[in-house]
Amino acid sequence: MADYTASLRRYYVAYTAGFFLFILALAVLERYGMPPRWIGYSFLFLTIFLYATIGVLARTASVSEYYVAGRRVPAVFNGMATGADWMSSASFMGLAGTLYLSGYQGLAYVLGWTGGYVLVALLLAPYLRRFGQYTIPDFLAARYGGNTARLVGVFATVLASFVYVVAQVYAVGLITSRFVGLQFEVGVFVGLAGILVCSFLGGMRAVTWTQVAQYVILIVAYLVPVTILSYQVTGIPVPQLTYGLALEKVQLLEEKIFHDPAEVNARRLFRERADGYYERIVTLPGSLEDERQRLSVLINTLKSDNAQMREVAAIERQRRELPTSSEAARSYWDTLMRQAAQRGAEPEQHVTPYPGPGEAVSDTARLNFLTLVFCLMVGTAALPHVLTRYYTTPSVREARSSVFWSLLFILALYLTAPAYAVFVKYEVYSTLVGSSLADLPVWVSAWGKIGLVSIEDVNGDGILQLAELALNPDVILLATPEIAGLPYVISGLVAAGALAAALSTADGLLLTIASALSHDVYYKVYRPQATTQWRLVVSKSLLLVVAVLAATVAAQKPATILFMVAWAFSLAGSAFFPALFLGIFWKRANAAGAVSGMAIGLLVTIYYMVRVQFDTIPWLGIHGVGMEPWLGIQSTSAGVWGVAAGFVTIIVVSLLGQPPSKETQDFVESVRYPELDGS
Amino acid sequence: MTPQDYWRRNLMMTALLLTLWFVVTFIVSYFARDLAGISVLGFPLGFYMGAQGAPLIYLLIIWWYARYMNHLDQEYGVDDSESDD
């Protein structure tokens, strides 16, 4: 075992050194005139080729290797693999942006996505490892005796993981299309190939070793740009320690910018525009026809005044884009009203917790913060693709220390994300805001072309006010190399890191879905007599089917993708956490309680999400189902109700029924502690 | 030296550490507005706890639990690892 770990360490040290040499070589080539496009291609194809090589080398035909990597992944490496498995494109690209846009409120993600590991370490990982089977539904079936619990578990696994995997494949499409100029749909399928080469031949074994490789790339890519930026701003290359200094400067700039008269005026203009949209919405349907006529009159006057063609064309486009039905107009103007209102809102200071006018608004913000933290934590401790990773360590002892390593490797990114937000904010406030629109830096227009940065000179003074600048959260991380004035090779590196983050998470999720279907449904329920070889054939075919399905859905560019990721946590948390936790810590919990608790927890969460988030679902023909949120809690925190309902249901139903059998109680004992002498 | 004993000590430690987890997560965040006046390394304390303090404490909690349980395993002679590290 010690030899095995040592040689693994040698391989990965050599690999990391090789990766640095590769970056250096590209940097030199760039200086000698290698075009950016080729740098992008080099990063894309070299990294995918690397993952493919590992995937092919780790191919296997053994069931234990395929599902749990032979249970001989040392704690440190399992920690790295969990880190890559866990940190998706939402963490890599979205987190820094969310922190930039919402300041203190964004810390809910940092807290939730790290604190969940305390629950994993203390309440689940060691016990699942001692149980030592293949999937989470396996545990539910063993503890709650029977296939009903297993099938409910499979349903929840597939539901939560599929939503999540679509988001990852979507991100792959975005990255490849932005950095190497592939068409979005082509990018999705290139990414799909990258995912499949890792998991198809070698299952968990291949996924584990590619995830370790992907972790190295993603963390290097995340740390390099912000470290250089920190050095430029403060002279010390440790962003996690120095961003306090930048934060103090940001606070001074906020004081100055927020009260600037031009700023106040720009915000007022945006608010007036929002009021205008509100006016139109309440006077529907008449206002739609009025608006069409107003634009037509405007076009005619412009034409008769011999105005510039560009101006006329812009208004004509506005008229063309007007919705046709009053229902569509409502949602169209509603979106525009919200955008304008957001730009016109009083800006909040970065460090202010729970901002808002008045105590009540602030208290609701606090409640939403706390419930979101809770949902993300419980979801972390319930997402099957993460929990399965703790089946792969050689022992319970290694499982415990593996959670420590996992969190350590994850913190390397999560402690850095707030620094990104602050340094970029400092750059934007100190150099961008207040500069002339005619000479903005190149990155603004480059990212503006694909709609991630938008600038509107609402007060027409030719100077950029903060209110006139709208940034998409993803751009914060992607544009940092350019903001810091770094060579293109660093941008390529960031793209490779984002790709690694998305691919590694997608690998883990796809394998989890395929395992749940092939192992739990096909082998355990449908055909228990199936041969080993046949089970792997089924699993591999399902992997292919699910992957193609995910890519097909992602290619449709579903709009609510970011919401769906947050929902995956609430769904997984409410379905699994109460049943897993009580299954280990409360012997009295019985099958009827667990099954009804999982089902009701899941249903309550879905019910709350749907009714708070949507008023109409056109493709199901449902209208007017929207409701006021309970206690003002948003749909992303729906799991707080589902988890509570799950706990209550399991306890009440279990107490009403018979206690579980002697075998089940013995099973719980066997999971809780090892065979002791004299017991 | 009974299994019940082992389990009871495990539960005590789990409860203790979960309480710590609860305090640094929910209690501290609940009072974040009141902690804004105190400054650490240039950060208001409430912000610092969310951005770095609490995550680092989580890491310590997990490290401590693994250490404690590994010692407990050895004490009860049930260490299941085959490696010597």
UniProtKB/TrEMBL annotation, chain A:
<comment type="similarity">
    <text>Belongs to the sodium:solute symporter (SSF) (TC 2.A.21) family.</text>
</comment>
<keyword id="KW-1133">Transmembrane helix</keyword>
<feature type="transmembrane region" description="Helical">
    <location>
        <begin position="79"/>
        <end position="101"/>
    </location>
</feature>
<feature type="transmembrane region" description="Helical">
    <location>
        <begin position="403"/>
        <end position="423"/>
    </location>
</feature>
<feature type="transmembrane region" description="Helical">
    <location>
        <begin position="561"/>
        <end position="584"/>
    </location>
</feature>
<keyword id="KW-0472">Membrane</keyword>
<keyword id="KW-0813">Transport</keyword>
<keyword id="KW-0812">Transmembrane</keyword>
<dbReference type="GO" id="GO:0022857">
    <property type="term" value="F:transmembrane transporter activity"/>
</dbReference>
<dbReference type="InterPro" id="IPR001734">
    <property type="entry name" value="Na/solute_symporter"/>
</dbReference>
<feature type="transmembrane region" description="Helical">
    <location>
        <begin position="630"/>
        <end position="656"/>
    </location>
</feature>
<feature type="transmembrane region" description="Helical">
    <location>
        <begin position="369"/>
        <end position="391"/>
    </location>
</feature>
<feature type="transmembrane region" description="Helical">
    <location>
        <begin position="488"/>
        <end position="513"/>
    </location>
</feature>
<feature type="transmembrane region" description="Helical">
    <location>
        <begin position="149"/>
        <end position="170"/>
    </location>
</feature>
<feature type="transmembrane region" description="Helical">
    <location>
        <begin position="107"/>
        <end position="128"/>
    </location>
</feature>
<dbReference type="InterPro" id="IPR050277">
    <property type="entry name" value="Sodium:Solute_Symporter"/>
</dbReference>
<dbReference type="InterPro" id="IPR019899">
    <property type="entry name" value="Na/solute_symporter_VC_2705"/>
</dbReference>
<feature type="transmembrane region" description="Helical">
    <location>
        <begin position="591"/>
        <end position="610"/>
    </location>
</feature>
<dbReference type="GO" id="GO:0005886">
    <property type="term" value="C:plasma membrane"/>
</dbReference>
<protein>
    <submittedName>
        <fullName>Uncharacterized symporter H16_A2524</fullName>
    </submittedName>
</protein>
<feature type="transmembrane region" description="Helical">
    <location>
        <begin position="38"/>
        <end position="58"/>
    </location>
</feature>
<feature type="transmembrane region" description="Helical">
    <location>
        <begin position="215"/>
        <end position="233"/>
    </location>
</feature>
From TrEMBL, chain B:
<dbReference type="InterPro" id="IPR019886">
    <property type="entry name" value="Na_symporter_ssu"/>
</dbReference>
<feature type="transmembrane region" description="Helical">
    <location>
        <begin position="45"/>
        <end position="66"/>
    </location>
</feature>
<dbReference type="Pfam" id="PF13937">
    <property type="entry name" value="DUF4212"/>
</dbReference>
<feature type="domain" description="Sodium symporter small subunit">
    <location>
        <begin position="4"/>
        <end position="79"/>
    </location>
</feature>
<keyword id="KW-1133">Transmembrane helix</keyword>
<feature type="transmembrane region" description="Helical">
    <location>
        <begin position="12"/>
        <end position="33"/>
    </location>
</feature>
<keyword id="KW-0812">Transmembrane</keyword>
<protein>
    <submittedName>
        <fullName>Membrane protein</fullName>
    </submittedName>
</protein>
<keyword id="KW-0472">Membrane</keyword>
